[in-house]
Amino acid sequence: MAVRNLDTFYWIASLGSFRAAADKLNLTQPAISARIQVLEQDLGVEVFVREIRNAELTFEGRRLFVFAERMMNLNQEILSAFSETANIEQTIRVGSSETIVSTWLPDFMGYLNQTHKHLSFDLRVDSTDNLRNALVAREIDLAFLMGPIAEVSITNHDLCAYEMVFAAPEKLACQHNIWSPEDIANQSILTFANNTKPSRQIREILTPYAHASFDMTTSTSLGALIRLSKSGMGICALPKAVIENETASGELVELKTKLEIPAISFTASYSSEGPQSRLMADISGYVFEFLRSRLIKNIYQS
User: Fold this and answer.
1) What distance in Å separates the CA atoms of residue 20 and residue 28, rounded to the nearest whole number?
2) Pick from 76, 284, 242, 252: which is nearest to 170 by CA?
3) CB neighbours of 264 closer than 8 A, spacing ≥ 6?
4) What is the pLDDT of residues 209-233, one digit of tens each?
5) Could you tell me which of 116, 117, 149, 118 has the C-alpha nearest to residue 132?
6) Angle formed by the axes of helices 3-15 and 59-81, to 10°?
7) What is the pTM of this model?
8) Where are the beta strands (DSSP E) in 14-133?
9) What domains are defined for the chain?
């Protein structure tokens, strides 16, 4: 019996469909089906119920899953034990918010590539809500997002927080030496997507100070928000570390104000179930060590 066929069986059963397993293993669905057919021929039993859309296990399939899970866990333990010499490449499906990608993630991946050459990454950049859904559905293995995720099956490790600031181009910023809440609330505000925690917090903070309707433009693209602010469209409310280059060059000026926006916090989150959970925990630990020198009271400083 080929081990790869048992591996394929495990991922179909874990992810709930042949399509999801095909995506995970970078195979076509016919290839996945062929492997299961060979596995069933070798064992002399059917492991999935036929003519059902989702991958439902038969009684024999449930028996087999126990062994398949043991094998997958043992396989991961072997790879971990020989991580310094093994030539087998493991691909980690990472999901990240744009804030992380815009600051330390590229440097971390370069660092890890030097110390763990057997690891490669399939990176997905998306909103926290979408990353959370993908992680729960096991479409990704590890997520760096505005957490934690309140799911029993998900483990969360605190990573870092980001100080939030208001900034604008010099022509707009110079209108006031000290910006009052009313001054800020009556400008167009550019910030995170509408369904995110910082966006909701900013709206709640500023709406009471607006003379008329509160004007807020939101986007999932931090780069787009920065460009819009630089063009003079309004005040951006973004992490200080994300606009560091623009403030250093003078393209944007941080506004002086007593109005505070709560810092946004991020976690490394992953499924606590499955053979890769230990590896995800290890990577989360590597991230924390990488960030240690860049944190002041848990606030990321680039």
Assistant:
1) 10
2) 252
3) 99, 146, 161, 162, 164, 197, 198, 239
4) 998 888 999 998 999 999 999 999 9
5) 149
6) 110
7) 0.81
8) 90-96, 119-125
9) 3-81 (1.10.10.10), 90-162+265-300 (3.40.190.10), 164-261 (3.40.190.10)
